[in-house]
Records
---
Amino acid sequence: MLSGTMRRSAHRTSAHGRRAARSQPLKLLGRAGFAARGVLYVVIGWIAIEIALGQGGTSADNRGALEAVGSTPVGSVLIWLLGIGFAGLALWRLAQAAAGGPTADEHKLTARLAAVGKAAVYGFLSYETFRYAIGSGAPKASDRQSVDATATLMRYPGGQAVVIIVGFVLIGAGIYLAWQAWRRKFLRSLETGRLTATQRRFAIALGEVGGIARGVVFAAAGVFLVIAGAQHNPGQAKGLDATLRSFAHTPAGPFLLVVVAAGLIAFGGYSCLEAGWRRV
């Protein structure tokens, strides 16, 4: 009797979750979130290009992007809109975790667990953006966050191993993101029936180039984390800004940073397209 009651309760909870996930307000919040993510990537990519050209005076990460947006004539309004967008994307991801996404792949357990992690990331990003909007200061630089988090983990028994494992997870995630982009898996999430042939080609170009660049950045950050763990040196961990700058110190020089940065801008453009054409 108890098990039957529990099953009915779980069924009702799941049904409520599906209705919430499919509600029009939540869909609009999700689309606003994809637009906000797109703006963030475009600005970070542009800052990285300026760094490659020797003109960058700010960091190519969330902090630098918020400062760049905030310095525009309508910056204060845009910052609030970005915060709302990130909060909306966090809520949409939570609903996705509870009820599954609009595609078959997003109903799998692994996809739902990933949605929880993404909700946490965008929830934290929203929190930092709102703090900046009300004048409580810009977020901590990504490099400082990475070093501090790595140092904190290493203070505990087994922390060094955890840092190395997290690094390998990031490397794997980066490879997976790049592979998904190369195989055009992102098309499953788009309402392709609404796209013209030209729009479809444009979406494919942005999704492929942007997704591969994003994967490369994730993997590179993971490599630095593995090195930090292996050498027991938290200072080797790098945030987004330092990871991007490291591309300029390869044999390809600043040219490689420009290529990767252009890829991030492409991903930002693709994310903005998702705001209108993604299955939500």
Note: The chain has a mean pLDDT of 91.
---
Amino acid sequence: MSRPVAVFVSYRLGGTDGVSIEARKWEWALRELGFGTRRVAGELEDGVRPDDTWLAFLAIDPVEGAVVQADALAAALAGASLVVVENVCSLPLNPVATRVTTDVLADHDGRVVFHHHDLPWERPRFADVDDLPPRRPDSLHVTINEGARRALLERGFDAYTVRNAFDLDPEPGDRDATRALLGFAPGDLVVLQPTRAIPRKNVGAGLGLAEKLAERFAADGRGVRYWLTGPAEDGYQAELDTLLARARVPVTTGRAPRPRDGYAAADLVVFPSTWEGFGNPVIETVAARRLLAVGHYPVLDEIVAETGLELLAVDEPDAVAAALRDPDPAGFERNLARVRAGFDLRGLPDRLARTFAQVGWERW
């Protein structure tokens, strides 16, 4: 008997965005459960594998001349035991891709998981969208937080929460080489914001904390550097340029060679977002045993309430400065222990299997 096949469909896969990262983990987990996997996307940022299907019209911003190929999408999904739709039918960032994928899935004979990282009512510009996610039989709706699951239930969807999963015992990054590569002095206090630059990431608050820390560490003779990893998106470039031009501390932009190198090179991670579907840097920072100062957003409240994480606040610079001067290694270990039960990547295959069983999908 041939093994079942799961096909992942997304705007983009293989990159460093949150959807791509979590889709990669799900792909690994499904393989652990005995599936073969293949991918269909408008962008395949880690290169096209032999069993991938690249359909340019699916990209968030399709290349000029991209042709809508509904038949090609249907052919790529044909014979799949399971189709995993990663946000294409959750958030209409490319309305044409969303509509065509929805139509193709309506005619597809097989099981579908809609893996919702975001939902339209969570974004003001999509507040009028009332036909997503699709209502399709033999489908499973999976959210990455409880708030989204409850919102789906209120709209008449049966939904299940499978939170993002993480390697909680990562290989250490290379602190010294990364700091040297980015031009940080040995004594610099590096404040890392590992996000893109868009309004809800609240770059101003992260930079503002770095500036306040510079005032508090000036007498110690320590310089403070603010480091933003991601580029500007969603039309935010002009505002970002103005913000960084006025910065009162040196600013570095761009990614480290590997994410773990970024965390290793930092002395403090800031995550001042006002809205996130999840917020992966929170758990990644815990796994890296780094100090973390956060803003306020609903899913973080959910995570903290469930785990009891001890976090610093971006609007309390005195407390952050005190923690930097006198780090608490035992606190890092307490936080790590608190996230193991619900967020360890090694448990993801079992969490998916249990979710499938809840809707009677034990056999493939």
Note: Residues 5-165+345-358 form a domain with the Rossmann fold fold (CATH 3.40.50.2000).
---
Amino acid sequence: MILIDLLNRAGWALAGERLIDTLPGCAIVLLVGYAPWPSSWHAHLPEQFAAALDSVARYTEQALAGAPGRPGLRRQTYRALSDLRTEFQRTMAEPPSVSRRAARLRPAVIALEHVTGTVTAAAVRGDRAA
């Protein structure tokens, strides 16, 4: 904006006009786009984390018991973890009031992924040993 204004013969007048046009646009976006939906201020990450944790728990139980339905449950678990990671990334792009709370769950999300990988490795080793 500054480069265009400097090349213009009118000088800084165009920059002032653009600023005056931009400020109401920002206000409209904030008031119409964000304020009416208070639910968008909250992260849905805890619910996603709980769903992924349930899926990992079921998978762990079935994988270590050698149950026959493990491949489908493994795919479902990794899909739940992928959804959790996507929700985490989306939440981190939110304003600081939401993203700060989500950042606290990052170690738990990473640990849940590591647990799932370890359970999968143990189940594969158990299949090979059998």
Note: The CA atoms of residues 1 and 19 lie 10 Å apart.
---
Amino acid sequence: MPSYFIIGGDGKQYGPISADDLRKWIAEGRVNAQTKAHVEGATEWQSLSSLPELKDVFHDSPLPPLPAGAAPAKTSGLAITSLVLGILGLFTCGITALFGLILGIVAMVKAKSPGRGAAGGSGIALAGVIVSAIFLLMIPIFIAMLLPALAAAREKAQEINCLNNEKQLAVALRMYADDHTNHFPPAAIWCDAVKTSLPLKSMFKCPAANPASQCDYAFNAKLGGMDENNVNPQTVMIFESDAGWNASGGPELMPSQGRHLRGRIFVIAFADGHVEAVTASRLSTLRWDP
């Protein structure tokens, strides 16, 4: 014997119920000829009066309230989960919104499907789909906002690495002077002279420079072989340069623009061992003569 599903006066779905129960409800006036129904397994809703097996039992009456004892369809847990995941997309850069969108679509399909197991909550599912879609569309915006910050952080990390490298080179040069009657190494071999004093050979390399070069720094040639005690502490000792291994000279060896902060910063180590990030406007004030 077929079972039936109906749409109550409150717009909600009830069932399945047997044909005998349905005829009883008709006799009690709890449903009428206009009540929407479908036979279990069917896909289309139609009025009870259009069902051939029920045409002879109707008397027109107002659309009734909920049938006594009938249970409304439960709100879909998928719909609720979809909305929650969509909202969480705000805090996860849209990652959870992808799952929220999928679950929301599934919940909407289930809510509209007739038959046993159909669930309510299509409105919540729709809200979950909309919210999730909004946050998914915002992912490119989040990325566009994040990329400049990541680039700035990367540049700052490279600058700090370069500062540390020149600090270690300055220390190595001063150690060489301590071991050679306070005299700095000859300018022409300064890399060879200090390489054994460095913890890592990579300290000759600036992370923002050409990775193929052996050394990304140069030595102030005017300090070559000089007594450390006769050198002004504020004299440039190590500076960034593309001239390569054992490069020595003056400001003419510096790159045309800085390697840091989008070309505005040059890293300089001084004769007293301290290191600074110097702006391009300050380069003309640096001391090169001991």
Note: The beta strands are 3-7, 13-18, 36-39, 46-47, 217-220, 236-240, 248-249, 265-270, 275-279.
